[in-house]
Amino acid sequence: MFFDKEIPSIIFENGKKRTFKKNHNIYKINSKITHCYFILSGTVKIYIDHTNGRRSILDFALENDWLGELSLFHEESDIKENKVLQEVECLEFDIEKLQALCKENAEVSFYFAAYISNKLLTRSYRMSENLNYSLENRLATFILQYEQKGIYNISHTDVSEYMNASYRHVLYVIKQFCENGVLAKDKEKGYIILDMEKLERLQEEK
């Protein structure tokens, strides 16, 4: 689901530019969230490592996404693991100042409530998709969502954990896309999208 509600301009008045390098963790586990971040560019992986040794990827945060916004309304006692996949340029906000702004300004508070609601609905919809659509359809949608300038480079391991599919199955579908002229593997960039229309057709079949 695409969230297109305009951000109230007053929010940006207190933002400070920050850069996080690849493989950096923006939040530390078991530490209190003191800042929110609005992503200008880059990709962040949000995941949980379970006690049984397995990992679940909850989401990937991209341009125009927020990190830490749930703590504006409810303190997160269990911080999820996060790792920068591609260098992130963002705006950093002191969470207490942002909370005060939410209390003072109904438009700001409604914006964040709408953003969080959309995020929760999107995750619920994805869980439903995992049960009802083929990996080919879901992977086509995923590639379209996370490609950047015609390049797709999220690891197969991350995709398998995100989609609750085996690594072998993900690799098989990617190989089929390459053989059918949809993708082309590039050693440095990852995968180049050759046929955007075919991916869009697969997405529409859902």
UniProtKB/TrEMBL annotation:
Gene Ontology MF, one: DNA binding
Keyword Cell membrane: no
UniProt cross-references to InterPro entries, sorted A to Z: cNMP-bd_dom, cNMP-bd_dom_sf, Env_Response_Regulators, HTH_CRP, RmlC-like_jellyroll, WH_DNA-bd_sf
Keywords from the UniProt entry: DNA-binding, Transcription, Transcription regulation
Residue ranges annotated for the Cyclic nucleotide-binding domain, each copy included: 1-101
SMART domains assigned to the protein according to its UniProt record, in alphabetical order: cNMP
Cellular component GO terms held in the UniProt record: cytosol
PANTHER family: CRP FAMILY TRANSCRIPTIONAL REGULATORY PROTEIN, REGULATORY PROTEIN YEIL
Protein name in the entry: Catabolite gene activator
Taxonomic source organism: Clostridium saccharoperbutylacetonicum N1-4(HMT)
